Amino acid sequence: MHYFDFSFLKFNFFDILDIVLVALIIYQLYNLIRGTIAANIFIGLAIICLLYFVVKALHMTLLTNILGNFMNVGIIAVIVVFQQEIRRFLLLVGKNASLQRNKAWWKYFFGKAETEKNNYIRIKPIIDACKSLKQTRTGALIVFAKFYDEQFYQNSCEVIDAKISKRLLESIFQKTSPLHDGAVVISGNKIKSASCILPLTDNTNLPPQFGLRHRAGIGVTEANEATAIIVSEETGEISYAKQGRVKMNISFAELEKLLNKDF
Ligand SMILES: Nc1ncnc2c1ncn2[C@@H]1O[C@H](COP(=O)(O)OP(=O)(O)OP(=O)(O)O)[C@@H](O)[C@H]1O
């Protein structure tokens, strides 16, 4: 009879905690890059890494040296290539660690119903404006920034700093308005700026009907802790972008739910 000896497998509490934490970090990173262009880059890097170990095991000296040199600067390459994702990840960690901004704590102490009621008051003018923009087929791009990064937004925007109102949003996106081109950025309880030029996404897997407005709406959510509503001028359809991914043709009930969660 053969006995297997597992005595070399010795785990203590901290080993298990270590594994759980690493799994959580990998899961969060996966969530951040899932469906975005960064996922393809990540697969590319993983293949190069795997190739390195294979050629090393096969003692293929030249390839091992070339890939080895690449691996030596790998961490710098990863930081450069994934700088936006790392930035989002750190924002996520910082946000969750902050008691004030953590909605779960807020709800725990002050009651869910109260928070949702206050949120609905903030959201209503935005939803009403979207309804009217959809009806009149007026193109619009509204960005909700968790943190208003002045450097990022203010360079290309007109500063507004006004109370959120349906009529103001409608007027900004009117085709005859000097501010209608570009995006409106909302942060906290204010329309912070309008006519913002945003970075476009590089994602090549988007529907062909998506032009610059949609690409800018998706791009800003890749680069920042932000979400975006895109109203199509062509079809009146409403799309919602978050973390580089987009939900197309959403209903107003769905929009309300998403804004309640994210805004
Ligand atoms: N980099 C940018 N940042 C913000 N807004 C932009 C940017 N580039 C273009 N836009 C806006 O998008 C408009 C052009 O939209 P385009 O027709 O290319 O978009 P689309 O995604 O096809 O949307 P639609 O369905 O409304 O036509 C511009 O008039 C401008 O307001």
Automatic annotation (TrEMBL):
The chain crosses the membrane at residues 12-30, 37-55, 61-82. Pfam families: CdaA_N, DAC. It is an enzyme of class 2 (transferase). Its EC number is 2.7.7.85. The keyword Transcription does not apply. PROSITE patterns: DAC. The keyword ATP-binding applies. It catalyses: 2 ATP = 3',3'-c-di-AMP + 2 diphosphate. One of its GO terms (molecular function) is diadenylate cyclase activity. Residues 83-252 form the DAC domain. Keywords: ATP-binding, Cell membrane, Membrane, Nucleotide-binding, Nucleotidyltransferase, Transferase, Transmembrane, Transmembrane helix. Signal peptide: none annotated. InterPro entries: C-di-AMP_synthase (IPR014046), CdaA (IPR034701), CdaA_N (IPR045585), DisA (IPR050338), DNA_integrity_DisA_N_sf (IPR036888), DNA_integrity_scan_DisA_N (IPR003390). It comes from the Bacteria. Catalyzes the condensation of 2 ATP molecules into cyclic di-AMP (c-di-AMP), a second messenger used to regulate differing processes in different bacteria. Belongs to the adenylate cyclase family. DacA/CdaA subfamily. Probably a homodimer. This is Diadenylate cyclase.
